[in-house]
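Example for reference:
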Amino acid sequence: MNGQWSGPLKVPGGELQLIITIVPLSNGSYYAALDAPQQRISRMPAEAVVKGTDITVSIEQAGSRFVGKIGKNGATLQGTWSQPGLKAPLLLRRLELPQPAPIAGKPRLTLPYREEQVSFYNQEAQIRLAGTLTTPAGPGPFPAVVLLSDSGPHDRDVTEQDYRLFGSLADHLTRRGIAVLRFDDRGVGQSQGSHFNTTTADVVSDAQAALVFLRTRRLLDTRYLGLLGHGEGANVALLAAATPVPAAPAFVVALAPYGVPGRTVIRRQQLEIMRLIGSNPAQVKAALHLNQEMIDIIRQTPNDNQARGKVAALLRFHNTDLDPHMARARAVQLTSPWSRYFLDFDPTRSLPAVKCPVLLLGGTDDLQVATTQNQAPLKKGLKNSSVTALRLPGVNHWFQPEMKAWPVVNGEPQPVFSPRALDEIREWVFRKTERPHPVATGDPAPQPKKQLVKGGGSGKVSR
C-alpha cells in the first residue's frame, strides 16, 4: 500500500482531481494524506485503515471519507467519496513513481556540483540517518544548510507526485554556491527510527546531529552552517537555534513556521478547508465543536487507552455509521506522541533564546499555516534576533506559485518551487554569510579550471 492514488471526483460544475498518499508505518498502521491541487490543498492529514481488500480513508479536517476496495493487485482503489453535501463514486489509480531525471523525458545530465550519499549518527536517539550531501564546484569553503521537513513521513527530496520540494531547493542552492544536506525522516527510506513515536522536540536532535556531521566536511565553512526548515521543520530549526550547544546553527531559514499553539493551527486549518469544500455554516460549526471536544478529552486524559476509548466513542456518537475500527484508528492517531505534543506546543516559548539571524518566509495562499496568523507572534518572540519576514503573493504551503505560472511539459503544467522564494532564500543566506570564492590552497598543483565568480552574486561557474 505504499504509494499514491489519483482520480477525478465529479462535483457540480466539473471535476476535482484528488490524490491520496499512503505510507505504511513501522507499528503496522498507515500515514495518509489528501491532495486536491485545484483547490490548493496539500498533504491534508488523513487516516487509512486496510482490512483485506477493504480500505477506508477518513479526512476529518474536511469532514470527508473514501470507502472502497483495493483492486488489480493494488493498482486501483474503487469506492465512494462522501463529504458535506456530496456523495459520489470515485476510482483512484496508482500513480507511477517519479523518475529521478530533473526534466521529464530527458536523461539525467552530469550535475555541475558534487553529490554524495551520506549517513550520520544521532547519539541522543541512537539511530543512523541517511541522506544526500550536495557541494558546489570549486575549492570552497562554502556555507551550508540542513533541510528539515514538515510533519508526516518524508523522503529526503520530499517527493510529492511530480514535485520534489527539497530536491528542487537543494539543486538551486548548490548550483549557486551553498552546500545542502537533506535526509530521509526517521523510519523512512534508509533512515532508522520510528516516525510514529517521534515528536517535534525529538527531531531537534536530528537537526543537531546533522550540523555536527557538517562540521567534519573539509569543503564547508564551519562559521556558516545553518538550518532551513519547512512547516514543522521550520519550528524544529528555531528550537535547535534556541538551544545553547556547540551544534547551534549560524542562521535559520523558516518556511511557513507555526507561530501559534498547535491546537489553534488545527482549528484554523479545519475552518479554512471546510469553507473551501463548500460546507455550510452549520456543518462548519458542528465540525469545529467535535474537534474541540476531542482535543479537550486528549488534553485532560493522560492515559492513552482511556483517551482512545473516549475519542472513539465520541466519533461514533456523532457519526453512527462510522466503522468501529476506523474510529479506533483515528483515536490512536490523535493520541500519538506527536499529536499530544503538538496540541500543547507553543512555538513562541523558546524564541527569546534565539540569537542567530532568522528569515521568516510564507505564502499568502497557504491554507495550512496562514502567514497573517503566524508571522506576527514569531517576529515578536524573536526579539533578540535579526529577523526578516516576508509574505509572498500567490505562494501556497508547498511554496509553489499559482498554477498559471507553472511551466508546461508535454502539454501538462508541472509544479515548481516559487522562483521568487528561491531568490529570497539564496540572497538572504549570502547576506548573512560570505559569498564563496576561490581560495589559495597552498598546493603547487594547477588550480581547477572551474571556479566560482567572486562577488558577482550569481555563483555561476566560469571557465
About this structure: Residues 99-107, 438-463 have pLDDT under 50 and may be disordered. The two ends are 49 Å apart (CA to CA). The longest helix spans residues 281-300. The chain has ten helices and 22 strands.
